[in-house]
Amino acid sequence: MSSLKGEVALVTGAGSGLGRAIVDRFIEEGAQVLAFDQSEEKLAALNSCYGAELSSYCGDVRSLQDNKRAVALCLEKYAKLDCAIGNAGIWDYSTSLDALPEERIDLSFDELFHINVKGYMLLAKAALPALVRSEGSLVFTVSNAGFYPNGGGPLYTAAKHAVVGLIRQLAFEFAPYVKVNGVAPGPIDSDLRGPAALGMSETSISSLNLPKIVPSSIPTAKVPTPAEYAGAYVWYASRRDNIASTGGVHMSDTGIGIRGIGTVSGGSELGAKYKL
To answer: pTM higher than 0.85, yes or no?
Structure first.
């Protein structure tokens, strides 16, 4: 039985990468989805793949009115909202504070925080009445940078730490009616872009070839695909599986948090010992 059959979800940043993978997986699990993205082209590609189980809204997550319109469209199409997923985001490409041009600090800070933090807060504000009615859930994309250094520069790392705080505060404020949780992916090969204020809006993280350069530095020795990260969102949205969790973050970080000092993992000899 599909774990989300009959459920309705709204996903921001849904046009590509992790957001697109979440949309695909939720529909596979039986949900109907409102895809929210700023790219008409990416939404058109999504619409061409699905029928009545998908609707789309083109807008800016930094706008409360756009978030409210997306929720209203979802209610118009499907008559309810069970899960809202804040996923739209940008990365600072690990730009250090020293390397940030002084004249770009204000602009880049505002751009990144407005998308990565305020965008989630506005989604929560817009979706709250519908989620209270459905006793549903909010799920936010965090990152290993929400807990550890060097997953980005100070802009991204500070923003993702802020998202963890937002999850905990909203879980408190919205209980007992709405569960609020997060998923913290590790390295991902996607179309994640950077701030326009730093000239990075056309730079995609896929250009770094993370599947080639990262595995030797992470315990799992594999960079998951966006689709391989999507299952954690399904679990948090599931009314069957997630009965007790709110205010938490699922660590899907490829083991970054347990790397040893001077070595990535302690079990490298196990394959030779036990694998035939």
So the answer is: yes
